[in-house]
Amino acid sequence: MPSGGKIQPENLWDAITHQIKLGVFRKDRQRNFPGANQHFLDYYGLTLPEVIGHNDDELGLNVHLENFQESEMQLLEDGVSVKERGKTRSRGRIREIMILKAPVYDQDQSLA
């Protein structure tokens, strides 16, 4: 990798998500997925086209929908990171997960 070069924002998502061995996803202000890494997709047995434009409620991923909905709405309102445990449905099984949700800001320091 060349040194001294500036990381382009469009490359940052790919650089991070290909290196980390955890499920990583993004959500928009309507709580829909505009992206997820391969580890996330493999965990749930989904493809990117199945995920994009949908939320976890529509995909049936969460056992207690209201818990995750509340924390996501709080993050959108306050811009404060959320760390929580919950139950998810993955490949026909209910599993315990730990989630860290963090806000991403645009150049104007607005919640993106």
Structure description:
There is one protein chain. It contains 5 helices and 4 strands; from the N terminus they run αββααααββ. The strands form 2 sheets. A two-stranded antiparallel sheet has the order 1-2. The protein is globular, with a radius of gyration of 15 Å. The two termini are 29 Å apart. The mean pLDDT is 86.
Break the fold down into its secondary structure elements and pairings.
Layout: H1 9-19, E1 25-26, E2 35-36, H2 38-44, H3 48-51, H4 56-59, H5 65-78, E3 82-90, E4 93-101
Antiparallel strand pairs: 1-2, 3-4
How would you sum up the global shape? Answer: globular
Rg to the nearest angstrom? 15 Å
Q: How would you characterize the largest beta sheet?
A: 2 strands, antiparallel
- Quantity of strands, as a count: 4
Average residue-wise pLDDT: 86
Distance between the amino and carboxyl termini: 29 Å
Question: What's the quaternary structure here?
Answer: single chain
Poorly predicted tracts of residues: none
**Which class of secondary structure composition applies to the elements?**
alpha+beta
Order of helices and strands: HEEHHHHEE
Give the helix level as a range of percent.
Answer: 25-40%
Count of helical segments?
A: 5
Order of strands across the main sheet: 1-2
**Which percent range describes the beta-strand content?**
15-25%
